[in-house]
Amino acid sequence: MSYYALISSLPMLLLEGNAGFTPERFLSYCDAYVSGDKLKILEDLGLDPSLERFKPNSLPGRYAIWECALRNAIVRKRSHKLNVDAAKYLNEDAWTEADVERIVAAAWMVSSPLEREKILDQARWEKIEELEAGQLFSFEQLCAYKLKLLLQLKWVGRSPEQAAQNLDLATSMVERSIELQTKQEN
Description:
Elements: H1 4-9, H2 23-31, H3 36-44, H4 59-82, H5 100-107, H6 113-132, H7 139-155, H8 160-185
Helix pairs in contact: 4-5, 4-6, 5-6, 6-7
């Protein structure tokens, strides 16, 4: 089935843009065109790698496989840096993807955690676009749109200044918690 009217009415998405469009609004648009199991797939679709929820040959399934491989590569990189055994943190069901080690290596060349996350999310965006290629006006394109919308929303309002404020807030909360715990122990 083709979704010409629905897909052509959706706003264009950019990773670092703000379409002012929410997943809830997207699903309300889809409700008129998509039904049953397909609507449930769109509702369940998220950025987390849900290997068991989607068919491996579907766009959500292929993305989940790739995301799991990416997360495993991140775990290996972080555990190596921390001198920790990665085995207990790896997803054993994940497949190997050729490009993820290169992506993670490039991301770890950047010292800023915010910039590193931006590199990883840019790679996610590009993978979704790769999977979406040739899927014009199809359900697969709707799945790609939802994934890209979730990635875009992740970055709305993020900035280096906000990151510094969040770090200060988290530090203050930890310090306050330690103070309270020390008072209770005395």
